[in-house]
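Quarterly update from the structural biology core.
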Amino acid sequence: MSSLIKDMGTNGKRLFIARHGETIFNLAGRIQGNEAHTPLTQRGFAQANEMGSALARYLEDSGNDLELVASDTGRALQTLSVICEHINMDWHQVAADHRLREINMGEWEGIYYHALDGQLQIDREQGLFLSQAPGGESYSDIVGRLKDWIAEQSFERDMLLISHGMTSRVLRGLLTGREPLELISAPMAESLPQGSMVQIVDGVETIIHLGSGESEKA
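Predicted structure, tokenized:
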């Protein structure tokens, strides 16, 4: 791993990053994107509960004065609301930001994965999309909006952040100083099961809770 990228530190503060819980589109095998509201399934709520319980145990007596940040999608906010119950925080204090949304899948949003009939190339080993959707984003686009978001953060308090599968992996890659993968021209942290939460402090990542869900699907 390379040295930490300049200005990507967290000022010594803890940044807890999690992906939203399973949704009805995840369960059905449909591409989510960002426009459709795809509520959590029962399993998704259970995953959010597990992450909330794990975070509460991890924080213990260190205080729950976290800055709350999330993608502005319904599934991310639902997940945040459940986690906040466990740490006695008001999720309405969230700073919802569109830059933390999932990769834009353009014309493929809402389509069943199997219906794309080979148009979407996926690296199964690394869990990466190798095809850019018509009218959608590249991984480099995600890097650009996440760097803008990071540049605005003062990291004066610990932070809880709820995002998405691909986006959270790029964010973790940036914050831990990973070199861009040649295949996608973007830094990418390892894939973790849905329902997982990590902590990053000045480039060092620690797994807080390892979920039991499936790997990435946008």
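The first helix runs from residue 24 to 28.
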